[in-house]
UniProtKB/TrEMBL annotation:
Lineage: Bacteria, Pseudomonadati, Pseudomonadota, Alphaproteobacteria, Hyphomicrobiales
Family classification: Belongs to the UPF0437 family.
Protein name, as recorded: Rop-like family nitrogen fixation protein
Record-annotated membrane-spanning stretches: none
Any coiled-coil regions, as ranges: 4-31
Amino acid sequence: MSDLEELQKKVRKLQSRAGNAKMELHDLAEDLPVNWTEIKAVAEKTFGVFAELEAAKREFGALENSR
């Protein structure tokens, strides 16, 4: 498998993780004030996944444009 295909696969997996993290944060927000103490941990997890996704997308774009 080429580097481009590997990176594309990584982006797809991260998109799935990001979607799940977004829904977890959304569900937590809907249930407030229940479990309000989890806001920071869930938000940090969501932030981390989206930051990783953004970096992978930039890397994929750069690699794709270099071809």
